[in-house]
């Protein structure tokens, strides 16, 4: 129950809260080292699966990944979240560079998205990356650093 304004807007009353509730939270993580250097998108190994309780539910997605390139020249890295391997939920580009080959200063590849899968079956979300530019690789989950994905089912 929550305190809310009554129907006549003259006072407060207790009543049921409608919508916007977090119904479940699922997390996934990986520490498997990943390196890649192509303009085609590739799976990073970061994935999680959630089974929504209603077709009207929304899925709030957050990811946290750290990566670097071994070049001092900026590289444009494409990052995206996919639902069930084909439906793009979030698509972004991040410019990454390091101050030198030996320093490997990491860049965050964090994303936030809201999806409406319209399903009550198991739904998988995963991240993918690509890199544009001259033959430089992107490195994720190096030295056992963890990447995480959090899925929250929001009831509406």
Report on this structure.
The chain has 156 residues and is an all-beta fold. 0% of the residues lie in helices and 57% in strands. It has no helices and 14 strands. A 4-stranded antiparallel beta sheet has the order 3-14-6-11, with no helix packed on it. A 4-stranded antiparallel beta sheet has the order 4-13-7-10, with no helix packed on it. The chain has a 4-stranded antiparallel beta sheet with strand order 5-12-8-9, with no helix packed on it. β8 and β9 (87-96) form a beta hairpin. The chain is elongated. The two termini are 16 Å apart. The model has no long low-confidence stretch (mean pLDDT 84).
In brief:
With 156 residues, the protein is an all-beta fold.
Structural class: mainly beta
Number of strands: 14
H and E order: EEEEEEEEEEEEEE
* Rg (CA only): 20 Å
Q: Beta fraction of the residues? A: over 45%
Global geometry = elongated
> Percentage of helical residues?
under 10%
Distance between the termini: 16 Å
Average of per-residue pLDDT values: 84
Q: Runs with pLDDT <50, length 5+?
A: none
- Helix run count: 0
Looking across the biggest beta sheet, what order are the strands in?
3-14-6-11
């Amino acid at each position: 129950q929550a305190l809310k304004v009554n129907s006549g807007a003259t006072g407060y009353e207790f009543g049921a809260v409608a919508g916007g509730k977090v119904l479940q939270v699922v997390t996934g993580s990986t520490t498997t080292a990943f390196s890649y250097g192509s303009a085609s998108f590739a799976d990073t190994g970061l994935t999680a699966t959630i089974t929504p309780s209603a077709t009207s539910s929304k899925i709030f997605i957050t990811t946290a990944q750290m990566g670097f390139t071994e070049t001092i020249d900026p590289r444009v890295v494409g990052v995206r979240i996919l639902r069930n391997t084909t439906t793009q939920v979030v698509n972004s580009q991040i410019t990454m560079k390091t101050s030198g080959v030996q320093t490997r200063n990491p860049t965050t590849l964090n994303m936030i998205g809201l999806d409406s899968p319209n399903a009550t079956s198991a739904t998988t979300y995963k991240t993918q990356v690509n890199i544009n530019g001259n033959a430089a690789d992107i490195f994720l989950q190096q030295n056992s650093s963890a990447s995480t994905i959090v899925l929250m089912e929001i009831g509406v």
